[in-house]
Write a structure and sequence with these properties.
single chain, alpha/beta, UDP N-Acetylglucosamine Acyltransferase, domain 1, eleven-stranded mixed β-sheet, nine-stranded parallel β-sheet, 28 strands
Length: 260
């Protein structure tokens, strides 16, 4: 049986699984879809076209589906937010809906967003990422899988953050962060994320190749084009190739390369 607090306000257009929990003064405003086993905390606001799978937990005061912070946005545009399964959103998390017709801001499965995390419009996030307090992702940021982000980090719009990256607290990034890399300060590489790779189940041979590719790309003093050309002359496994491809095909912002 659903446990809905009597002070909660639920739109008749919303579709709730039979076993959801809705806390005091929560508002579900519009045609939201809330999957089995979801827990919606007190004073949460879920607005518009928000769809979430099973076993998500949304903490106190969080807001999902609000209009994007884009002065050119037309509120009549049909957009939404999509969450997968088993995500944990702690207190005061904000996730804004997309800006382009029929698009959604998208979060995968098993992510942990701590207090005050903000995901801007059109963000695409993969699986099993951990974002500490007050991490801020601007519009159109793409994040892969198993990324760890320290508290107070800020990411510029349109950048990409690769799988198994680690971002030190209070970092600012206005360029892509390549897979497996550790980044700190402002657009500054801090090394390879060896611990994250081991924890993520990447085997020793793949880790060795990733470290060799990292050294070639970022520590040999070569221009990126020459480094990628040199990498293409060698044989690599699929994991190291992912790092090389991220450097070969960055977003319009380029990729972080300066090592501290």
């Amino acid at each position: 049986m659903a446990q809905i607090h009597p002070t909660a306000q639920i739109s008749p257009d919303a579709r709730l699984a039979e076993d959801v929990t809705i806390g005091p003064y929560a508002i579900i405003d519009g045609p939201a879809v809330i999957g089995p086993g979801c827990e919606i905390g007190a004073q949460v606001w879920i607005h518009g076209e928000v769809s979430m799978g099973a076993m998500n937990k949304v903490g106190y005061g969080s807001i999902l589906g609000a209009d994007p912070q884009d002065l050119a946005f037309e509120p009549a545009t049909t957009t939404g937010v999509v969450l997968g399964e088993k995500n944990v959103l702690r207190e005061y998390v904000t996730i804004h809906r997309a800006t382009e017709q029929e698009r959604s801001t998208t979060i995968g499965n098993g992510n942990f967003l701590m207090t005050g995390v903000h995901l801007g419009h059109d963000v695409v996030m993969g699986d099993r990422n951990t974002l500490a307090n007050n991490a801020l992702l601007a519009g159109f940021v793409e994040m892969g899988d198993q990324v760890v982000v320290g508290g107070g980090c800020a990411f510029h719009q349109f950048i990409m953050i690769g799988d198994h990256a680690m971002v030190q607290g209070l970092t600012g990034a206005s360029k892509d962060i390549a897979p497996f890399c550790t980044v700190g300060q402002f657009n500054r590489l801090a090394g390879i994320n060896s611990i994250g790779m081991r924890r993520g189940g990447i085997g020793p041979e793949d880790r060795r190749e990733i470290k060799a590719a990292y050294k070639l790309l970022f520590r040999e003093g070569l221009a990126l084009g020459k480094a990628v050309a040199e990498a293409d002359s060698r044989e690599w496994g699929s994991a190291a190739q992912k790092l090389i491809e991220a450097v070969r095909n960055p977003s319009r912002k380029g990729v972080v390369t300066r090592e501290g």
